[in-house]
Amino acid sequence: VLVPVRASLLPSVVRGTNRTLARFCCFDAPAMIKSCVVLAVAILAGTMPKNMRPPEGVESWLMFDGVCNLCDGFVNFVADHDSDRLVKFGAQQKHMELLKRAGAPTDLSTLVLIQGERHYVYSDAALRTMAVLDWPWRGLAAFALVPAPVRDACYKFVARYRYLVFGKTESCRVPTGDFRRRFIDYRPEEEEADPISST
User: Fold this and answer.
1) In what order do the strands lie in the sheet with 112-115?
2) Both ends of the chain: CA-CA distance in Å?
3) 73 contacts: CB under 8 Å, gap ≥ 6
4) CB under 8 Å to 102, separation ≥6 — which residues?
5) Please, are residues 48 and 145 in contact by the beta-carbon 8 Å criterion?
6) pTM of the model
7) Distant-in-sequence, close-in-space partners of 86: CB < 8 Å, separation ≥ 6
8) Nearest Cα to 131, choosing from 39, 186, 40, 62?
9) How far apart are CA 35 and CA 30, in angstroms?
10) What are 49-100's pLDDT values in tens digits?
11) CA–CA separation, 101 vs 61, rounded Å?
């Protein structure tokens, strides 16, 4: 059955149809793109750390400048958010021979992360350390997607002025209590001989 439509109604019907089509075809493209980008970043944040973690059973040794306050702060941060105790620490000043054997820099210009037979420096060392931490901090390893020259340039700029901005100590930190067990030069027998080591 054909229902007659008044001619005066046709323009409004057409306009309404056009608006509907316009909304369908131009459905806030910027918001859609933004959502896709956020989703992609979330996926990468979940998968990147897994790809940057060492193989099962391989320890992570984070070698740091023992007199640098900024480095000490980073070590404290890593220790506080590494509930599985996957990272061990060592002051570079005390382990120069180890750094030389690994082929790593010995000029205190960078963190050095040693994982098995491989070592990493500059931003790679920091991000691969983040990759073994607890969530949500592990997700920061996704910054590895930023081109390495850009990341390393920022890292070197901060490293160059770290003493000026954050200060330094006269000697390397001496870990005490349970924290000393996180260092690669920890010796259980020394603790047994020290009745106040647990304080």
Assistant:
1) 87-91, 60-64, 112-115, 118-121
2) 93
3) 166
4) 112, 114, 119
5) yes
6) 0.69
7) 59, 60, 132
8) 62
9) 9
10) 667 787 788 889 999 988 899 999 999 999 999 988 989 999 899 899 999 9
11) 14
